[in-house]
């Protein structure tokens, strides 16, 4: 299968793609609600080939609602930032004959003005996707949303193991926020990577591999945005676009992040399955057990 998925722009493979024909209206409706650039193209096509998982995520009601909410928040944040800058610069007097421009204001805010919905929880600066789009491509920062309750605990453990001022600030910032997911907390990905690096002059040891961190972030996002509760190890590794991450590293990081909630099933010569112990996983086990019992009854 040749060509590319129009949703994620990645190559199509015969085992992972689906040709959408009857469901074109659903794709068009999802595109219109999202307000993206695909609507006109989809209207001009009788069918399109996309990845199965991309189609699920693209048409899922909760995902569309999250995208629309993000657009509204970004617009509101941009408007507030513009008003703030105008209020700071409108009364500045430039001496006659001076060639200097008014001093530039930054998006950094005091702790009293910090808001999880608008600012990076690591650096405290504004985290706004619309603002990033206006910057030159090489200077744009990716903005990530906190998606698990365990994220706060992991950050606090790292911060509390250090004595620098930045770690103390982050601890004070998130320490009293019980649920960062509900607070819609966000952060710059490069700030997160910088935070994970051991401080200069600290304990001896191999520095963290940024490529591995980025690859695992992609895997975590894929898992947490999926309706499924069971994956193969190969499926998760294919999510990583720019890293040849090995099996042992993926399994180790999954265990570190999800602990007892993840079950890794390995059989020599077979696929390695990654399962999660939530309600879906329980139902999946029940269905499997029932199917197995029925097969035994037929044999009897």
Rg, Cα atoms, Å: 24 Å
**Rough shape?**
globular
Number of E-state strands: 7
> Domains counted in the coordinates: how many?
3
Measured by DSSP, the beta-strand proportion falls in 5-15%
Give the neighbour order of strands across the main sheet.
Answer: 5-7-6
- Overall structural class, as computed from helix and strand content, comes to mainly alpha
Largest sheet: 3 strands, antiparallel
Provide a descriptive summary of the structure in words:
It is globular and about 60 Å long. The protein folds into three domains: 59 residues, no CATH class; 101 residues, no CATH class; 83 residues, Arc Repressor Mutant, subunit A. Strands 5-7-6 form a three-stranded antiparallel beta sheet. A two-stranded antiparallel sheet has the order 1-2. Strands 3-4 form a two-stranded antiparallel ribbon. Helix 6 runs antiparallel to helix 7. The longest helix has 29 residues. About 9% of the residues have low confidence. The protein is 47% helix and 8% strand. It is mostly helical. The protein has twelve helices and seven strands.
